[in-house]
Design a protein that fits this description.
single chain; three-stranded antiparallel sheet
Amino acid sequence: MANGIWTAASGAAVQAQNLEIVANNLANTDTLAFKKDVPTFKEYMASVERTHDGVDIPRGPIQDKDFYPLEGRDQSHVVMDGTHTQFRQGHLRVTQRPLDVALEGPGFLEVSTPNGVRYTRQGSLKLSPQGMLVTQEGYPVLSSQPSGLARLSAQGSIAGNAPEARTIQLQDVRGQLSINDQGEMYSGENLISRLSVVEFANLQGLRKTGGQLFEALPPSKGNPARNTMIHQGVVETSNVNPIEEMTQMIKANRLFEHDLKALKTYGELLGKEVNEVGKL
């Protein structure tokens, strides 16, 4: 009887976690390039996944389950197995800002952060006070090749492929800035730089680090983009569908209520077992 309480309690606990994930998705409906999270669940068989100390010969009174073996079903709980990010393409929105770029395809922009290189699809870019191309949080956007200044570094103090050598400087740009679908940046007819766009064979090797940034976990490694097009003056919106998320929220709320009702029923049955059956 008591084991059923824990089955219902585990169901209520994971639905509470599910609601948190859905609520976070809904809160980021208007966040540019946000990628929704999807929870996964699994059945945890306590009688199978826990270590066994050997077969214990029953020496106590015979119980009802000895006549009706449950084969471990009374020890089956549900647990949150984890979450994964859904990288479905978001809609593209025209802004006509020359520093806004949207990625159509599986690619990511390379960004330099204090914690190392990170990856983002949030293409609402700007210039820093020093004339460097940066994200809205101020992280430098990287080019696919070292800048001319880094290549001509006298002592070679900046490694040719280091993030510091691949920042994009636009302070001396004269004329209209244009970006083609390969990420090449032009001032008039002069090539200035090329945005570093990479693709990953296994997108599940990417982990969110906040601010629409992703970290590539080993052994994941980005490769130069082949199937990604870049659009200037456009941004990618969130891939969250509010109607779909509201449906999931209603479903999770109802499942949570059902588990609470089951808990209440088990509590009432245990109360009768203690207060009434014990008197017989």
